[in-house]
Amino acid sequence: MKRLENHITIITGAGRGIGETTALKFASEGATVVVVDLNEADINHVVESIQKLEGKAIGILCNVTDREQVNNLIEKTVATYGRIDSVINNAGITADSTLVKMEEQQFDSVIDVNLKGVFNVGQRTAQVMKEQKSGVILNASSVVGLYGNFGQTNYAATKWGVIGMTKSWAKELGKHHVRVNCVAPGFIMTPMTEKMPDKVLDMMSGKSPLGRLGTPEDIANAYAFLASSEASFITGTVLSVDGGVVT
Ligand code: NAP
Predict the structure, then answer these.
(1) 223 catalytic per annotation
(2) Quick check: CB of 192 below 6 Å from ligand 1?
(3) Which of 27, 41, 134, 219 has its CA 20 to 30 A from that of 13?
């Protein structure tokens, strides 16, 4: 039997990058994946890739900042599968600028997706999981949430905030048998980091004792472990998957 057989998971921002790889990983472990993204073509591509590998997936368009769309996502999932075993709050954006130059819109947009979006999806999912008395909520933090980063006031605030929400939810939901954890990736090669200058990426890989950037598979493996019963006594934690980055 596969590790995530009969497991229903929702993955936000699953149209590309870490979310896409995590969707493929969960499907390969036997899970049925609800692929969530803003972009329909990306969703269809991921759902088709999973189905080609004989995995199970459906796609649902949803902007995590829109509470009505989030409500629809959760209701459709429960109507289709009857329950939600895990959710991965992976959708996230950057809008970098130094503190003195950052526009209000840059600050607000990142807070809206990375913090409010996690709250929106986490809250609706928790309502379902509390009723069913089981479930796992996994949130995407970042090494930047732990150590800060030049030019990422907005992003660092959200990723630190995600840790606070994770620990609070773990305390509230533990008695309902719902586990809540977050993963703090280091610098991972995805479309998000492709925008960064080579100089910065070289510096980041130099900060890891392992001397490399991470891969989306490194993060997908951590999510799959935390969602599985192998992690049944782990809640309220931040799992750093960053190659031992030293600031
Ligand atoms: P990515 O390649 O930019 O992918 C992010 C995905 O999220 C995209 O498919 C994007 O859709 C989707 N998305 C953005 N806003 C959304 C919204 N409002 N509602 C629904 N979906 C939305 O990012 P990534 O590098 O894979 O990162 C995934 C997560 O890991 C993020 O939370 C990120 O902060 C975190 N993380 C990444 C790294 C890294 O080095 N890559 C490090 C630490 C943490 P569109 O394509 O349609 O815009």
Answers:
(1) no
(2) yes
(3) 134
